[in-house]
Amino acid sequence: xxxxxxxxxxxxxxxxxxxxxxxxxxxxxxxxxxxxxxxxxxxxxxxxxxxxxxxxxxxxxxxxxxxxxxxxxxxxxxxxxxxxxxxxxxxxxxxxxxxxxxxxxxxxxxxxxxxxxxxxxxxxxxxxxxxxxxxxxxxxxxxxxxxxxxxxxxxxxxxxxxx
Length: 163
Hints:
Blueprint: H1 14-34, H2 37-42, H3 51-71, H4 87-105, E1 116-119, E2 123-126, H5 127-151
Helix pairs in contact: 1-4, 1-5, 3-4, 3-5
Protein name: DinB family
Binding site for a divalent metal cation: 141
Keywords: Metal-binding
């Protein structure tokens, strides 16, 4: 009798995952840029939050979430610290958080991606699933932004153009 051992191949490297995520962030930033100032803060469809509030949520999750993962600190989720009044404030904070993401993401070892972490004291999943949640949540909210832009008669960027 022979025994066969399958070698597990890594599907994606951490550098590739970060590049993928940052591609989504680049696209979401372009969506924020497209909104007229007033509509960014006021326009909604079907009772959904205006896109500025969705952007604040995304800003409040990614950087703080990664910082918590790296430092092993579980802090409650809060959108109360950042209260922008202009599109420029949102874009500036978006860019700052991009650097925070780069800084903390690169401190997560390959082994840590498999460890369980209780994100914001609410979601206990492996680190890689928490990071995928950040990306999925952003895609979801960006989709809402696409609906808003189309309702405003604007053509959003192609979803595959993430540069």
